[in-house]
Amino acid sequence: MSAKAVYLETFGCQMNELDSDLVRGQLAALGYRFVPTADQADVVLYNTCSVRDLAEQKVRSRLGEMAVRKQQESSLVVGVLGCMAERDGTDLLRRMPVVDILCGPAELDKLPGLLDNAVRTRASLDGELTHEQSAKAVALQGSASRRTGTLAAAEDRLELLDLSRTVSPTDHNGSSYVRITRGCNKFCTYCVVPFTRGAEVHRPPDHIVDECKRLADAGVIEVTLLGQTVNHYRFEQGAAVTVGGVTQPQKGRSYQGGHRRDPFTGERVTTFADLLKRIHDEAPGIQRLRFVTSYPRDFGDDVLEVMRDSPRICRYLHVPAQSGSDTVLKRMNRGYTVSEYLEFVDRARAFLDQPEIGRPLMVAGDMIVGFPGETDEDFEASVQFLRRVKYKNCFIFKYSPRPGTVAFDRIPDDVPDQVKRRRNNELLAVQNEMSDKIAQSQVGATLNVFVEGLSAHERKRQAPVAASGGVSLTISGRQVGEGGTSIDEAPVGAAQLCGRTDGDLIVMFDTPAGAAPDDLIGRILPITIERASALTLFGAPASK
Ligand code: SAH
Ligand code: SF4
Ligand code: F3S
């Protein structure tokens, strides 16, 4: 079969971005080639998110466009991967006949087989059959996702998919994700993730450390560890099972992190703190190690100690609180109170906030407004909470009722949309004020910045010039005339670069004279901050 062109678009969280990377690797190895736009593709895949209705709406509108195209082009193959496939199940096929492939996040290793099937089926149709009549390729966990036996089998296969990850030295921008935990056992009452991603399962520490080392060898300098409740990682070596030479992942248990190690087995348990230390010490090429998303409950001092004592672990925590009201937190089944959350943030700052050595601790959060039953007082408590916690940034979401969750079934969505919208805007304004304060407090500081690339502003500035076909910019910021002749001494201004501090603050600075952006991208540079807005710091390379 000739090389099929695939377009893959990703929605949702970092977990999905990593899954898309694995899918890309898997399909590229089989000879599929990837194209940057859907209209160039024979196969269009959407890796989807179900966390809010808005996320699903985007995918539905894309599918609508593909349905129109497919009327002319019956060989087009359309696949829905990820959380929406798992949540909607075969219902989606009924409502959206344009879809040929459905593949849940726990079944992605089966995608090549499904795709091969779908491509063959559609190629043999010759436009004679309607979408409804064509065979559909489906792989979902369905209601088996939390059954131990099925789960174990799925985990074995998925572990192999993560292990098969190809790491090419030329195919990354210096930063990479590594999964440590799959699924979630928390069942917050509003959330679909425990249903779409299944039960919490921890990957074997040796596999994780090995993956980090391989990434470091390929030149990756920043690794972000992924899990829905990442700080709950725990692996019992003694209980590990090996199948075909591969240590198998382990089902999540109730949290027993912290210092509570088994006194007899000692080393046999790898806690989250142990894992961080191992990666930090065994993969020193990783100059920035971070992790998302943390769960506020049960965050032991052992993790904070390792963070404090490890220079390459970032001073950054993303710990969503969701609400500043105890009654709402209870209805959300979050399992902590506002004062417990605040105790944690204060403790983390006591351990880790060290602006005097250029290492301030930055904390980020998520909040939901308009959760069922949220009163004006509850909302006011969230406002005060944001003022007290001082997040460097906080994602604020309007509650979106999700079918299948406890809140959807048992708690009426009684906050009117216009109230949700007003609360959303009000909380955003408060957060903006707090972000601005934190940003201003960095002015004068010298912070290490991982240079990611040209700033969005710079890309826009260069694009119209390049597109005009007349004068175009070289990457070094020097102007080049129409015939390609260099108009030396006619600089158009230094190219603006963009990067992040280890606390995840965004920093912009101009390429210094004598340097080219390409020499700096992918490196960590000390930048002195000169001015700031709520979301961005502006500075210049420190003169040293
Ligand atoms: N595991 C992470 C969050 C994963 S979902 C944690 O527990 O913190 C990412 C964010 O989406 C959540 O933090 C929450 O703020 C938001 N979210 C999840 N379900 C939602 C819903 N039904 N409506 C609105 N926001 C939601
Ligand atoms: Fe969803 Fe709660 Fe699990 Fe986070 S911890 S993924 S919000 S159920
Ligand atoms: Fe969305 Fe699934 Fe991630 S629902 S947030 S893509 S785990």
Describe the structure.
With 544 residues, the chain is α/β, with parallel strands linked by helices. The protein has four domains: 5-140, Methylthiotransferase, N-terminal domain (Rossmann fold), CATH 3.40.50.12160; 149-314, Transcription Regulator spoIIAA (2-Layer Sandwich), CATH 3.30.750; 315-440, Transcription Regulator spoIIAA, CATH 3.30.750.200; 446-541, no CATH class. 35% of the residues lie in helices and 21% in strands. The protein has 17 helices and 26 strands. The strands form eight sheets. The chain has a six-stranded parallel β-sheet with strand order 2-1-3-4-5-6, with helices on both faces. A five-stranded mixed β-barrel has the order 20-23-24-26-25. A three-stranded parallel β-sheet has the order 7-10-16, sandwiched between helices. Helix 5 links the parallel strand 5 and strand 6 (137-139). The longest helix has 24 residues, at 417-440. The protein is globular and about 65 Å long. The model is unreliable at 466-491 (pLDDT under 50). The structure holds S-adenosyl-L-homocysteine, iron/sulfur cluster and FE3-S4 cluster (F3S). FE3-S4 cluster binds next to helix 1 and helix 7.
Q: Summed up, what is this model?
A:
The protein has 17 helices and 26 strands. It is of the alpha/beta class and 544 residues long.
